[in-house]
Amino acid sequence: MDAIQKEHERLVKKSNLSKPISTVDKIISMLTTARAQISNDPTSSALVLAKLNNQLQTAVSTLNDEQKDIYNGLGKYGKALDKKFKASSSFSSAEYDALAGETSLINRAIAMHLIREGNFDVASTFLHEAEQKGDPLDISEGLTKDFKDLYEILDAMKVRRDLGPAIQWARSKEAQLDARGSNLEFELCRLQYIWYFMGEGKGTGGDKQALEYARKEFGRFQDKYLPEIQKLITAFAFLPTIHTSPYAPLFLDPERMWSDVSRSFTREFCSLLGLSAESPLYIAATAGAIALPTLLKMTSIMKEKKTEWSSVNELPVEIPLPPRYQFHSIFVCPVSKDQTTETNPPMMLPCGHVIAHESLQRLAKGGTQVTLKCPYCPKECTAQQAKRVYL
User: Fold this and answer.
1) Cα-Cα-Cα-Cα dihedral sign, residues 199, 201, 202, 208
2) Cβ(364)–Cβ(356) under 8 Å?
3) Three-state secondary structure string covering the chain
4) Whole-prediction pTM
5) Is the dihedral of CA 106, 108, 111, 112 positive or negative?
6) Could you tell me the CA-to-CA distances from 386 to 116, 330, 347, 359, 383 in Å, in that order?
7) Cβ-contact 127, 139 below 8 angstroms
């Protein structure tokens, strides 16, 4: 990956488009001026066009020279990618393309990703072009407005260090957040208190401002967060030496707290919209990039041994993903050692032990009334008494 990183850094360094854009603007200006001259005096068209031709040849030559470094950088970066991730994998064939024929689904994922990343102008253009091509995407304008509100609140938090809009939003959604068991509002108020305490808030006299804020706001949280509030208030006794006091961890890294609270706010905001905290397209692409080297290696091994993987909707090897990319629990049958699926779901016997449906059918020899013995305890039951487990 070092070679790819090196070429990427080189590409970023050389991909300065300011000069090419300036040259293109000059070309547009030349064309506009020539059109105006011909419009004013049609008899001068031959002279104007001849002069324009010479100017354009020089400008286009300059434009090509200005883009050479960019083209070279793109070429080297592409070669580095091809060298690291060989494109000859059989997984790239249409036979294994689970999204073949799902153009609308892919376009919707791209549009949602653009909206979630705050690229609203690009998303609007993408949606418009998709509609022009006869593929209107079912994304409401209200969702775009919601994410615009999100980014305005995050901008206030990250740039201006203003928690007011975030706290106001949390209080307007108090019922929904409480139903989720969220502590977002308290996190926001706690950070505001710490920011005042450290003398970073508006006005003078940080400790006095923090105390006034605590008296005004913390009363509403004392039933649920009294121990935490007690620690925050008791810290006043150690104000001169707060960083060596027992309460130092509460005030150790305010900048990190801003980052953590921003992420918490984004997560709760998206959850109330019925969305995940991160873009599904980003998660899928990242997980795919993590899995790709293992799959490529597995492909080469299968090619050498002249074997194929025939199971549908199942990878030939286990792909270890970071915990943040694991969203669903899985169950592996202790009898067959196979992972359960929708067609082979986990089934719980009356004794509480769980096995796969296919294992249950084999034990019952295909009959629903046949008495079978649990493979892990002496209890007996019938296949009909087993209940499906939903993970």
Assistant:
1) negative
2) no
3) CHHHHHHHHHHHHHCCCHHHHHHHHHHHHHHHHHHHHHHHCHHHHHHHHHHHHHHHHHHHHHHHHHHHHHHHHHHHHHHHHHHHCCCCCHHHCHHHCCCCCCHHHHHHHHHHHHHHCCCHHHHHHHHHHHHHCCCCCCCCHHHHHHHHHHHHHHHHHHCCCCCHHHHHHHHHCHHHHHHCCCCHHHHHHHHHHHHHHCCCCCCCCHHHHHHHHHHHHHHHHHHHHHHHHHHHHHHHHHHHHHHHCCCHHHHCCHHHHHHHHHHHHHHHHHHHCCCCCCCHHHHHHHHHHHHHHHHHHHHHHHHHCCCCCCCCCCCCCCCCCCHHHCCCCCCECCCCCCECCCCCCEEECCCCCEEEHHHHHHHHCCCCCCEEECCCCCCEEEHHHCEECCC
4) 0.64
5) negative
6) 44, 19, 6, 12, 5
7) yes
Does the pLDDT at position 320 exceed 70?
yes
Q: Which is it for the CA torsion 150, 156, 162, 165, positive or negative?
A: negative
Q: For 157-175, how does the pLDDT look when each residue is reduced to its tens digit (9 = 90+)?
A: 999 999 999 999 999 999 9
Identity (one letter) of the amino acid at 89?
S
